[in-house]
Amino acid sequence: AAEPWPENAALYQQLKEEQILLSDNASSLAVQAFLQMCNLPVRVICRANAEYMSPSGKVPFIHVGNQVVSELGPIVQFVKAKGHSLSDGLDEVQKAEMKAYMELVNNMLLTAELYLQWCDDVTVEEITHPRYGSPYPWPLNRILSYQKQWEVRRKMKAIGWAGKTLEQVLEDVDQCCHALSQRLGTQPYFFNKQPTELDALVFGHLFTILTTQLITDELSEKVKNYSNLTAFCRRIEQQYFEGHEKDSSATAARSSKRSLLR
């Protein structure tokens, strides 16, 4: 815990251009934003088998010294043990509120992204299967895609999302954005002047939704209805990504789609 943060810390995710999906890209960007906010340098390494390299089977994961830690929650705890925290200035009530909003984002936005990727038939056939299986030869590419689809759909069934229509899922996204917009108000960050883990998580998901080309723009339109949320994404992109690392996911994501954050 007392060891300083090494210069060669690395964050692993899937291949950016041809493989990574919306939900994993959002999760990876949230971790990158969190580390930037903590002023901890990390190099992004893209690997076709990142998902299988991860100790939890989920991306992103970081490799720091001899430690490998995956997903935002455990990474936040790991970084805190090294003496870096974004939420130390919050009181207990604020910390509880922050956790509640982070749960909301994971339960609504992340689940909606997974639903869209693996349960919307058009998206599955045109985007998800080709991208997810892209590094692998036939028939392995299809086998791995169907395996993942089965796994995600089983999860959707367990949490009661399997029977939802796309319209209902988009309505859930709208409700989540409305709650976030209300909480943010005119503040620069969710808890006034300093960013917390919540800001990193919200940025990762909203920015990725705004900059990912899907079959239709229905998902990004839900976010664009809230001008303070799009301004929030632009502010964090400018402050923590522009001019930092040219290869950052935020810069790469934004250049891959027409300018959305006007």
TrEMBL record:
Domain of life (superkingdom): Eukaryota
Gene3D superfamilies: 1.20.1050.10
Protein's UniProt keywords contain Membrane: yes
GO cellular component: SAM complex
Primary subcellular site in the record, as a coarse category: mitochondrion
Localization terms from the record: Mitochondrion outer membrane
UniProt cross-references to CDD domains, sorted A to Z: GST_C_Metaxin2, GST_N_Metaxin2
Keyword list, A-Z: Acetylation, Membrane, Mitochondrion, Mitochondrion outer membrane, Protein transport, Transport
Residues in Metaxin glutathione S-transferase domain copies: 174-236
GO terms (BP aspect): mitochondrion organization; protein transport
Domain (Mitochondrial outer membrane transport complex Sam37/metaxin N-terminal) ranges: 28-148
InterPro entries, A to Z: Glutathione-S-Trfase_C_sf (IPR036282), Glutathione_S-Trfase (IPR040079), Metaxin_GST (IPR033468), Mito_Protein_Transport_Metaxin (IPR050931), Sam37/metaxin_N (IPR019564)
Similarity-based family: Belongs to the metaxin family.
PANTHER family: METAXIN RELATED (PTHR12289), METAXIN-2 (PTHR12289:SF38)
Subunit and interaction comment: Interacts with MTX1/metaxin-1. Associates with the mitochondrial contact site and cristae organizing system (MICOS) complex, composed of at least MICOS10/MIC10, CHCHD3/MIC19, CHCHD6/MIC25, APOOL/MIC27, IMMT/MIC60, APOO/MIC23/MIC26 and QIL1/MIC13. This complex was also known under the names MINOS or MitOS complex. The MICOS complex associates with mitochondrial outer membrane proteins SAMM50, MTX1 and MTX2 (together described as components of the mitochondrial outer membrane sorting assembly machinery (SAM) complex) and DNAJC11, mitochondrial inner membrane protein TMEM11 and with HSPA9.
General function of this protein: Involved in transport of proteins into the mitochondrion.
Protein name stated in the entry: Metaxin-2
Organism encoding this protein: Orthonyx spaldingii (Chowchilla)
